[in-house]
Amino acid sequence: MPKVYVFKVALKHRKGLWRRIEILDNQTLGVFDYIIRKAFKHDTFDHLSEFYLGRAGGSRGFGEIEPGGGGIGARKRINQIRLTEGQKMEYIYDFGDNIQHIIILEKITEPEKGVGYPRIVSQSRPRYRYCETCKKEGEKIVANWICITCSEEKMINVYICDNCAEKEHDDHYIEEILY
Question: Are 147 and 174 a contacting pair, CB within 8 Å?
Fold first, then answer.
């Protein structure tokens, strides 16, 4: 019977932004890669990634994973890594932007009946940013976007809501905020 590995996955440079993921030990790093991409809103159709035992970029990488689950690293099963509770791995998504994650195996447990794996079971409490434009008008609207164009111009982060993004920033370069 397969075991469930419970991992806490956090952005390396924003450790307060994390997701707890459960995955079966007989599932592959390709499947783990996909659920991490989904959990952190990384593109699932673009960019290579790789898991490392120890520090990212070290000699203990498991091979590149291509979008869609291809690549030599995608075929390795979780139980083939022989992790123990408390052990750390690192994961890099997009070698150009070098988005690094710290992964800790928190526990190994039995699967629940009727549950599909992998799954995201919890996440960090969001620290919301509010729309700059709406704030000036006395409204407290959660910002879902950061306008890179305006941020570079003003040399401060400019957070905007969906409505303001559509009305005032449609020709700007904007990026979604990850909470």
Answer: yes
